[in-house]
Amino acid sequence: MIEAIGLNKTYGNVPAISDVTFRIERGEVIGFLGPNGAGKTTTMRILTCFMPATSGTALVDGIDCAERPLEVRRRIGYLPESNPLYPELTVRRFLTFAGRAKGLGSAKRGDEIDRVLSLCGIESVADRILGHLSKGFRQRVGLAQALIGDPPVLVLDEPTIGLDPTQIIEIRSLIKRLAGDRTILLSSHILPEVSQVCQRVIIINKGRVLASDTPANLVSRMGRSGKILVRATGPREEIVGALAAVPGAQRVTEAGGAFEIEGDSQDDLRAGVARAVVQGGWDLLELRAGDVTLEDVFLHLVTDEREVA
Amino acid sequence: MNGFLAVYRRELASYFQSAIFYVVAFVFLGIFGYLFFASVLAYGYFSFQAQDPMMASQLNGTEMVLTPLFHDTSVVMLLVMPLLTMRAFAEERKTGTLELLFTYPLRDLETLLGKLAAVLTVFGIVLAGTLPCVAFLSSLTPIDPGVIASSYTGLFLLGSAFLCLGIFVSSLTENQIVAAVVSFGALLAFWLIGVVEQFSGGGGGGPLSYLSILEHFDAFTRGVVDTRDVAFYLLFCAFFLFGTLRVLESMRWRG
């Protein structure tokens, strides 16, 4: 449904994204992860035909964004990061504008507006002025304007930014409800959000795609890289020294009486670690493989700049 | 067409929701009313003195009240019109709503024409507010309907030219104040551009005077609709609308 092939964009001489390539199938919910300034918004703006790429091709539903932008835009509902609204208009008037701009005739428009109002839970504020609404309501109005006309592709740039925890949960469950046969690309830097909502994650940093896989696969791939938690009693420094000497151990950190050992990707260090503790004559209280979260994967990728194929 | 209507209706709604329309209408009509009052007063005073038939035959409501009044009006317009257009694109750029316009299935031309049509409608409404004065005058003294028609045509064309330039300037900046001041300055420059020729002894009428935006308005107030003047205003509009389209396009490329 969405295809990016070697997208590049430079602002003046500053490269924003380079050689971004990915493919999103129909009906997938994709999380677009990356630290601030990674190029998420730039990529989304190219896909929504806000601006053309410097080079490369972006296809939505098989249509080239650079060649037939109007047809692409007709298929996309877009919630920009800043959620721009016209503060002087009422919610209903604003949605009427959005519907009209997306080519909905007057006969269908009324029903469509009622549909998105109730979908986003904003019927109660339909006749209020946008500038007087709270941030949570405004975010939902932004989502409503993206949804109007029922586009098959939704591009949501940080839909939960700046909301309080209850509002985040509401928006998140709304996005889950929207999935189904719609293709959704949503960017975020809130990791639990992405692992809850999305089937697949594309991680991007400094304008490059570092990984693209399901959260589970990313985690298991990282899991093999081995993180082990040990709890043992004894002189701390000696234990750290002994653990660091275990073949394959790369880094040992100590926190609150527990030791965390990071090792090579291939070997399981548990046997070696157990031996080292016992040989040192200390008591081994706990030994387990550390849980790898999406957060670890993210930090690992973003800080190491290593590619997970 | 749908896109044009969407932008047009939204723009109108925004104009009537914002204070700027009411302030501009109030200031413009207030000054117009005062000028009208002053010229009717002068006309009345003059008709008192015109006892002999020689002078009485020169009394002419059209020439003595309306022509100078419309001249003054054109200058007042030059001062207040940038306030109507300053927000056209500058505000959309500032608040980011331009991103919505650029990602809805709208052509740039539809957006631009929608905005232009909306501001022309607003301007037309303000201008229509001056008609009661003219109707009042016609109840006092016979005036030439042809001159009224041509003068209003001229005012509307002149206003359109002011507005097109204002929209163009507004597309260049995010700051509404800058947009207003620059359009105001540009309009003054287009007004005074012919002055050099008058001062240099040529007596005007040269190529620079031809560019002067108010010069072309004179004939309209005398009841003459010259195609050269109409063409001047239409070309002036087209030039700045074309410029605006180019600015929108380059904005998109720069991201």
What do you see in this structure?
The complex is a heterodimer of chains A (309) and B (255). Chain A has helices spanning 40-47, 69-75, 91-101, 106-119, 135-147, 165-178, 191-197, 215-223, 236-244, 270-279, 294-304; strands spanning 2-11, 14-24, 29-33, 55-60, 63-64, 76-79, 153-157, 183-188, 200-205, 208-213, 227-233, 249-255, 258-263, 283-289. Chain A is α/β, with parallel strands linked by helices. A six-stranded mixed β-sheet of chain A has the order 6-7-8-3-9-10, sandwiched between helices. Chain A has a four-stranded antiparallel β-sheet with strand order 2-1-4-5, with helices on one face. A four-stranded antiparallel β-sheet of chain A has the order 12-13-11-14, with helices on one face. The longest helix of chain A has 14 residues, at 106-119. Chain B is mostly helical. Chain B has one domain. Chain B has helices at 2-17, 19-49, 53-56, 61-85, 90-95, 97-103, 108-128, 131-140, 145-171, 176-192, 195-199, 207-211, 218-221, 227-254. The longest helix of chain B is centred in the first third of the chain and has 31 residues, at 19-49. The interface between A and B is medium-sized, with 33 and 28 residues.
Helices and strands in order:
The complex is a heterodimer of chains A (309) and B (255).
Chain A: E1 2-11, E2 14-24, E3 29-33, H1 40-47, E4 55-60, E5 63-64, H2 69-75, E6 76-79, H3 91-101, H4 106-119, H5 135-147, E7 153-157, H6 165-178, E8 183-188, H7 191-197, E9 200-205, E10 208-213, H8 215-223, E11 227-233, H9 236-244, E12 249-255, E13 258-263, H10 270-279, E14 283-289, H11 294-304
Parallel strand pairs in A: 3-8, 3-9, 6-7, 7-8
Antiparallel strand pairs in A: 1-2, 1-4, 4-5, 9-10, 11-13, 11-14, 12-13
Chain B: H1 2-17, H2 19-49, H3 53-56, H4 61-85, H5 90-95, H6 97-103, H7 108-128, H8 131-140, H9 145-171, H10 176-192, H11 195-199, H12 207-211, H13 218-221, H14 227-254
Helix pairs in contact in B: 1-7, 2-4, 4-9, 4-10, 7-9, 9-10, 9-14
